[in-house]
Amino acid sequence: MVYNKLLRGKRLSIGEYLNSVLMAGIDLLFPPPALCRVCGRQLVLNTRVEMCELCLEQLPLVGENLCRLCGRPLPASAEPTLCFHCRNTRHFFVQNRAAAIYSGTLKEQIHEIKYRYNRRLAVGLGQVMAAVANARGWIPRKAHLLPVPLHPQRLQQRGYNQAELLVQGMLSCIHLPVLEPGVVVRRQVTQASTGLNAWERRVNLKGAFYVSSPGKVVGKVLCVVDDIYTTGATLDELARTLLKAGAKAVYGLTLSIAVSDSDLAASSGEGRS
Ligand SMILES: [Zn+2]
Ligand SMILES: [Zn+2]
Mean pLDDT throughout 85-114? Predict the structure, then answer.
């Protein structure tokens, strides 16, 4: 529903994104076309994003009108400005951008990569993130990527960190340095944040991260990669910790962003009484 509302606004076509990937250069020595990482169909084009056009079309990519801080889509009619959340929150990060809206097929896919061990899909969605971010100039200059660390206990349960798989997918499309693993650690198993409000999420995450070797982050621009941006509590806590350790600036790049009907109503100035 929310997405349908947004669809009425201007939306970039997948063709534009794909073009940019193709323009980025098809490697002639690239192996023969692979299989779609979502549906398994044989790909006709040899692109770095290993997803068929049908599956790409299903992705609810964000439009052009975004909150300038968190990247949340705003109604097409709204002036490009701040969303309701960002008008009421102090952020430690410079800017976050999300490739798509957390809805429909993508919602199911994120569930697949987090709870059904679909690593292949995570890598494919990372490739999409790289294509979209590259086409829209969202990757900060001289940035090091940093997948949001998982607590070792979670890592052991799941067997992988989904944010690292997204980064792996990104790196198969674009060349970027990644902050060494282990420099930033999650020292706290936070309780599930579902059902918590924005303030409770922040309290829940306070002190969750720790920089083990500050020397490795001093003066660096970091681009934190995650699967979803909801209230921004995770990115803010990570940014606060990194800045304290001497990082120059912290940005965020997420596969998806949560958008609700009330966000749209609030950001367009409607629905306030
Ligand atoms: Zn497919
Ligand atoms: Zn915002």
Answer: 95
